[in-house]
Write a structure and sequence with these properties.
heterotrimer, A: mainly alpha, 3 domains, disordered N terminus, C: MetI-like fold, four-stranded antiparallel β-sheet, two-stranded antiparallel ribbon, 12 helices
């Protein structure tokens, strides 16, 4: 409204800056007054924050515990497994970027720049620095490959992502049926995967596992069968009516109680169960929103074609509905990502738990601010970039639809 | 696209279930690690989370003791604390160490002649009994207070005390507090869900004192709040206070009051209903005590091998078959003392004058020295 | 005619393919599966409980709790029952929720309006606030507020003295407070009645103004009525109803007055700041959804920015704002359970303690869940009612 500047004449740089200033800061008169009052306050706060970041804060606590923050107490000699995992994810990201965006250059350049900057300035071992550069190279390579094959590759990339989920779990954790022999010599107990890695794993597993349950619940809630409908409504509303901590607490207390005594429930599983049960209810409501947005004509047309309920849902309704709810699902994933902090109550060593144990290291006593600001920054970077990307995609979809 | 989508959904659902079933890690590897934050300084009365004693049942049906299972497995699984310096903690090289951990080693030494045939499971106060009840661990050496309730309704068996502890209170020297009465009106930091919390309430009430409890869910928060000055005092087991004081910024600024709020006998717990296994654990502990009483240490034990004293000969398994009647070898006490040392050595190694804790033996001395350690005779 | 079957009958499939029959069968099967699963799970639990020698039941609520609770506005000692301890938790949760909801609404509305400010700086501040807070976990923020802000205030002996006298330290904010004397109960009755009477006066005056068109100052009259009743109460009460005590450093702590605990403050600030960011976005979206023509019309009528916001934009935006606002209020209430991590004895924190002391996992969990569900239900009902009301006003 206020930012519309005249574009029919090309104003000089100075005039356009002046226009911009005038429109944003100086008109009408009380805006100028606000600007005059607020500027020094903002400047002072900024100064204090910057002074703290660059001079007062003692970042040693972060530097020396960087590995702990990233992977938790993962055994040093097995760290290569986490690098391989990261490599897979980076390669797939590169492939996807290439396959969908083509030979676009901002992403690879920023990845390479970030890699070089990281290798130069991060307080990590030489081997890790080289690994970091390799990761950047993998991304660029992946993008070239993706761009080269382009459209043709897309559907495979989707499947590769699905596959990678399990490969990552196998490599990182040696997840397998208990009857098969282990793939790796070293045994990684679930308590030893921690830090950011665990946070991401929890969020991804949570959303993936709650997806089918959520879709079923959403269908159940819109079902014409009263029993199914009541059950779904009860489940969704009860879960949504209680806090996540209590769900996690319940899972950690009652799961061992309700299951037969010979099944041992690891606390990672307890946490994942709690998160999944919780997330499913919210996901169901999101999906229901999508289902409701499908015009009635679609249902009628499907029925007119003689499709039965399953066929109608599978081929006509769900694909459309799920597409509509993608932004909401991203939003839910972000919320879940932040909510993983609550598994603290189960005693898992995700990022926040690591932060708390770092704070209690005797040599770093009293550095709560540094540690919390650091992990808040990590959460922020992830959440913000996800929500930003999702917004951009949404905008693009909206534009292309018109 | 649609079919693929649905297939994907089903696949993921199925795999999520598989994942849940196989337990997130290699089966034997899925040890729940407790957060470093969960440094149970106190012997917490965690909920006796009721879990059926499947082990016990299995044992009753087959008549097989856990001892056989452990022998067959080739190693002992021991539930320990991970974050209580001096008792159970990870040392700098990432190995478990501490007073409680040494007793795990003693049991392993008695069974396998190898103190390192142990797999440690760090447990939180809340999950320790469940872990025992579900058979996740064979024995619990995790600063656990022996109480009647735990011996009966929680379905555990105690029987021997490795450490006589009591609840204490730590205050700042500068505050000039010397007795409980001086704490009138004080803010006291305490960890929730512990007997500590109850004892504190009872003691203050009995003395008619007013105080503000500041209650946290974990020991780290509790001690952090104390250190920051949120509370005037902090209370937990004395051993925990001593251990924790060493990691405060200025340990010398703090003093542990000379009052004891409660009795906290800490000892190993095994599952109820397995007398053979219970005996093994109990007599391994007695062996360390008896060893000290005889003056036998890991250093001089071989000198005793040609002792004429029938008591010592029986103890070392040179005479009689005390060990085999226990289901072990006759020289089990020799193995224990040789590999791990007698009680005094274990104590000094972890808590004695050469450690930062420098904890006086007090009640944890031999009965001959005015303490409470008293081993039944080896005969 | 009897020989020619009706087309309907002709089309009727055998009963095992009849959709209605199938539907019933499907539901019965579903029900059986659910019941069998539930029975199976409960059997496991029952066996487990029996083997551990625990009998389920709510009798423990009448037993002596034995532990103390630091921050309570209703009287409680360790001699009270577990039931009373639950009540303390519930009251604390409600206290945080109500104050939090009010403050978060104020903060969120201000920030939401600022996000649309023509002034770049204000817009920038609001945007940075919203984007920072919304994208970091609440629990991290709570830990930050508690351990990195509240506990870093000066120690009690170096407390910052403020006028009042109030003292700020890492033990909280010590402020002067009333101490009830003999006549307090009666006076308090008047105090409550004053609100009712003030409301009635407000309605009466407002209706009159509405009907007759003459200015009747409803708000001022209500205020005067309130003051009169409160003062009248002072005279009717036997003796002085209360005195004011001032905080004073005596011994280890402040005595007299009352103390706002740092745990409560950290929780409240955390919840308000966090929820405020979400409310800001809701308010912004609500305002933006109001037709641009409305704003222009208001400007054309000569209304100032504030006036058009107050009388034109916000009332209309309310319709869009209320449903998502309700869920934010519910979120705030539910999120208050994170008090557990920073040592504030809310319902959840007290419940974990009780569970730990009694071992009654099932019972305690059922009580906690019931409490939160009731709160959610009540809030939803209230907001629905309010929503209806707002709708009716709009013609």
């Amino acid at each position: 409204m206020t930012t519309t500047t005249q574009t029919h004449t090309t104003p000089s740089l100075i005039t356009s800056i002046w226009h911009w200033l005038r429109d944003n800061l100086l008109t009408p008169w009380y805006n100028a007054l606000i600007t005059i009052i607020v500027t020094p306050i903002v400047a002072f706060v900024l100064y204090r924050i910057l002074a703290w970041i660059f001079f007062a804060a003692e970042w040693d606590v972060v530097k020396q515990n960087l590995r702990l923050f990233m992977v938790g107490p993962y055994p040093q000699e097995e760290l290569w497994r986490s690098w391989v995992t990261l490599g897979i994810v980076v390669l797939l990201s590169g492939l996807s970027w290439g396959a969908w965006r083509g030979r676009e250059w901002t992403a690879p350049i920023s990845v390479v720049v970030l890699g070089i900057l990281g290798a130069l300035f991060l307080p990590i071992t030489a081997a890790s620095k080289i690994n970091l550069l390799i990761m950047a190279a993998i991304f660029v390579g992946g993008q070239f490959l993706g761009a080269w094959k382009g459209e043709h590759l897309r559907k495979y990339v989707v499947w590769l992502w699905v596959l990678s989920f399990f490969i990552v779990l196998i490599i990182l954790w040696d997840v397998r049926p208990s009857s098969t022999p282990p793939f790796f010599e070293a045994n990684i107990p679930s308590g030893q995967v921690g830090g950011l890695t665990l946070t991401i794993l929890l969020a991804v597993i949570g959303i993936v596992a709650s997806f089918p349950i959520g879709v079923l619940l959403a269908l159940g809630r819109r079902s014409s069968l009263p029993v199914v409908k009541t059950f779904s409504i009860l489940y969704i509303e009860i879960i949504r009516g209680v806090p996540l901590v209590t769900v996690l607490w319940t899972a950690s207390l009652l799961l061992p109680l309700f299951l037969p005594s010979d099944i041992r429930v690891d606390k990672f599983i307890r946490a994942v169960t709690g998160i999944t049960l919780f997330s499913a209810a919210y996901l169901a409501e999101n999906v229901r929103g999508g289902l409701q947005a499908i015009p009635k004509g679609q249902y009628e047309a499907a029925q007119a074609l003689g499709l039965n309920y399953r066929q109608m849902m599978q081929y006509i309704i769900l694909p459309q509905a799920l597409r509509i709810v993608i932004p909401a699902l991203v939003g839910q994933f972000i919320a879940l990502f932040k909510d993983t902090t609550l598994v603290l109550i189960v005693g898992l060593l995700e990022l926040l738990a690591i932060a708390r144990s770092v704070i209690s290291q005797p040599e770093f006593i009293g550095l709560q601010r540094e540690v919390f600001v650091f992990i808040a920054l990590i959460y922020w970077v992830f959440s913000y970039s996800m929500s930003y990307t999702s917004r951009r995609i949404e905008e693009r979809l909206n534009v292309s639809r018109r | 696209m649609n079919r693929r989508l649905l297939l994907l959904v089903t696949l993921l659902a199925a795999l999520a279930l598989v994942l849940a079933a196989c337990g997130g890690g290699g089966e034997e590897g899925s040890a729940p690690t407790e957060t470093a934050a969960e440094t149970g300084g106190a012997a917490e009365t965690a909920a006796p989370t009721p879990v059926p004693e499947q082990k016990e049942e299995a044992q009753q049906q087959t008549g097989q003791s856990l001892l056989e299972t452990v022998k067959a497995r080739g190693k002992l699984i021991c539930g320990v604390n991970q974050a209580l310096p001096g008792f159970g903690y990870l040392d700098q090289s990432g190995n478990f160490a501490g007073f409680d951990v040494d007793f795990c080693k003693a049991v392993a030494a008695a069974i396998f002649d190898d103190p390192n045939a142990v797999e440690y499971r760090p447990l939180t106060a809340q999950e320790r009994f469940t872990a025992l009840q579900t058979g996740e661990v064979d024995v619990l050496f995790r600063n656990t207070t022996w109480t009647l309730g735990r011996d009966t309704s929680v379905g555990l068996d105690f029987g021997v005390v490795t450490f006589y502890d009591g609840q204490g209170i730590m205050v700042r020297k500068a505050d000039n507090i010397t007795s409980m009465e001086d704490l009138n009106g004080a803010a006291i930091c305490v960890q929730t869900g512990t007997t500590t919390e109850l004892n504190l309430a009872d003691q203050m009430r009995a003395r008619g004192l007013d105080y503000e409890p500041v209650v946290f869910e974990d020991a780290d928060s509790t001690f952090n709040a104390y250190e920051e000055g949120r509370c005037d005092a902090v209370t937990t087991d004395k051993s925990g206070l001593v251990s924790r004081r060493t990691v405060l910024q200025n340990p010398d600024d703090h003093v542990i009051l000379d009052v004891t709020l409660s009795k906290e006998p800490l000892g190993p717990a095994v599952l109820q209903g397995d007398p053979i296994w219970h005996d093994v654990v109990m007599w391994v502990v007695f062996a360390t005590i008896q060893g000290e009483e005889f003056g036998i240490t890991s250093q001089n034990i071989d000198d005793f091998m040609n002792s004429e004293d029938p008591n010592i000969r029986r103890f070392l398994g040179l005479e009689g078959d005390l060990g085999t009647s226990l289901g072990l070898t006759n020289d089990f006490a020799y193995r224990v003392v040789k590999h791990v040392g007698n009680y005094g050595e274990i104590y000094d190694r972890n808590l004695g004058p050469d450690t930062p804790f420098n904890l006086p033996r007090g009640l944890n001395d031999l009965w001959t020295n005015g303490g409470l350690l008293y081993s039944p005779p080896f005969r | 005619m009897a020989n020619t079957p009706l087309p309907v009958e002709h089309a009727r499939p055998p009963f095992w393919r009849d959709e209605r029959v199938l539907a019933v069968i499907a539901q019965i099967i579903f029900l059986i599966v659910v019941i069998v699963t539930a029975v199976y799970l409960f059997n496991n639990a029952r066996e487990g409980l029996a083997q551990a020698g625990l009998t389920p039941g709510y009798d423990f609520l009448r037993l002596r709790a034995g532990f103390d609770i630091g921050d309570s506005i209703i009287s409680y000692t360790s001699d009270d029952t577990y039931g009373r301890a639950f009540l303390v938790g519930i009251v604390n949760t409600v206290r945080v929720a109500i104050i939090g909801i009010i403050l978060a609404t104020i903060l969120g509305t201000i920030m939401g309006i600022l996000r649309l400010s023509p002034n770049l700086l204000l817009r920038g501040i609001a945007t940075v606030y919203v984007e920072t807070i919304r994208n970091t976990p609440l629990l991290v923020q709570l830990f930050f507020w508690y351990t990195a802000v509240m506990l870093k205030f000066p120690r009690v002996r170096q407390a910052i003295a403020l006028p009042g006298p109030t003292y700020l330290s890492n033990r909280g904010l010590a402020i002067p407070w009333i101490e009830p004397l003999d006549g307090f109960r009666i006076w308090f009755g008047f105090f409550i009645a004053a609100f009712v009477i003030a409301y009635i006066v407000y309605r009466v005056q407002w209706t009159r103004e509405d009907r007759t068109g003459q200015t009747s100052y409803p708000l001022t009259s209500a205020l005067i009525a309130w003051i009169i009743v409160v003062i009248a109460g002072w005279f009717f009460a036997p003796g002085q109803p209360f005195t004011i005590t001032r905080p004073e450093l005596a011994g280890l702590n402040f005595e007299g007055g009352t103390v706002l605990a740092p745990e409560f403050a950290a929780l409240l600030i955390g919840l308000v700041v966090y929820t405020g960011a979400f409310i800001a976005e809701i308010v912004r979206a609500g305002i933006q959804a109001v037709d641009k023509g409305q704003r222009e019309a208001a400007t054309a009528l000569g209304l100032s920015t504030v006036q058009s916001l107050r009388f034109i934009i916000l009332p209309q935006a309310m319709r869009i704002i209320i449903p998502p606002m309700t869920s934010q209020y519910l979120n705030l209430t539910k999120n208050s359970s994170l008090a557990f991590f920073i040592g504030f004895p809310d319902l959840f924190a007290v419940s974990t303690t009780i569970q730990n002391q009694t071992g009654k996992a099932l019972e305690v969990i059922s009580i906690v869940m019931a409490c939160y569900l009731t709160t959610s239900l009540l809030t939803s009902l209230f907001m629905n009612w309010y929503n209806q009301k707002v709708r009716l006003v709009e013609r």
